[in-house]
Write a structure and sequence with these properties.
single chain, about 230 residues, mainly alpha, about 55% helix
Length: about 230
């Protein structure tokens, strides 16, 4: 297998292959595949290709005798290796993004975040595996749940206050800009855990649903611990 990172031409070819008829429209888009792989290489436990490749390609991966399938798998493995090397070197990964709609200038960060969260689930329950650092992990993941709308949906379902539209727009724009940093920080979180490192705190941890220590009367997660503060 070619050990070199993917070139722009390789990425274009992979994008084309993921849309090939052999996959029956079951394969992920290139942006989703990249996001899932970012999560997979960050997982607290190794996820073998035999587990994540079918998630990216669907049932088409079973057609191993088709040369297009073999070519797609090879390019995906090179994408995986390139992402792993970049995150290990603290180089961060720039997300590949598609417009929300054809001709739109708005990019589909929600799809990217969804695919990352789905990929994280392949590595087991991250919160259980984080142990005593589950609250720290929760803070690191919250920006992704903001991007895909799940945090807002949960707040509205539970009758909790959410950000006003202008503030929400600023928050989302800030998370979008800092997405490479967020992904790198999540990778570093699990790298520290695997290496026996610990997440240091200078003061006692305030629970996400505890009253905010600033005295505002709001829950910590909706005040000083809001997603806006996580980056």
């Amino acid at each position: 297998m070619n050990p070199n990172p993917l070139t722009e031409a390789d990425l274009d070819r992979l994008e084309e292959l993921l849309e090939a008829e052999v996959f029956g429209e079951e394969a992920m888009r290139l942006d989703e595949a990249q996001a899932l792989i970012c999560a997979v290489v960050s997982c607290p436990q190794p996820i073998p290709p035999g587990e994540w490749l079918p998630e990216v390609l669907g049932a088409g991966i079973e057609k191993s005798d088709d040369p297009l399938v073999g070519e797609t798998v090879e390019l995906l493995m090179r994408l995986n290796n390139g992402i792993a090397a970049a995150l290990l070197a603290d180089e961060m990964v720039s997300p590949l993004l598609y417009p929300v709609d054809e001709g739109s200038e708005e990019y589909d960060f929600a799809a990217w975040a969804d695919a990352y969260i789905y990929g994280a689930g392949l590595g087991g329950d991250w919160y259980d595996l984080a142990g005593k650092h589950a609250d720290d992990l929760d803070e690191l993941l919250e920006p992704l749940f903001v991007l895909n709308g799940m945090l807002k949906e949960d707040a509205e379902k539970n009758g909790e206050r959410w950000f006003p539209p202008a503030e929400e727009a600023r928050l989302i724009a800030d998370i979008q800009e800092n997405l490479p940093v967020i992904v790198q920080t999540l990778y570093n979180f699990w790298r520290a855990k695997r290496g026996g490192g610990t997440v240091q705190r200078e003061e006692p941890k305030t629970g996400r649903n505890d009253p905010c220590p600033c005295g505002s009367g709001k829950k910590f997660k909706q005040c000083c611990g809001s997603p806006e503060k996580l980056n």
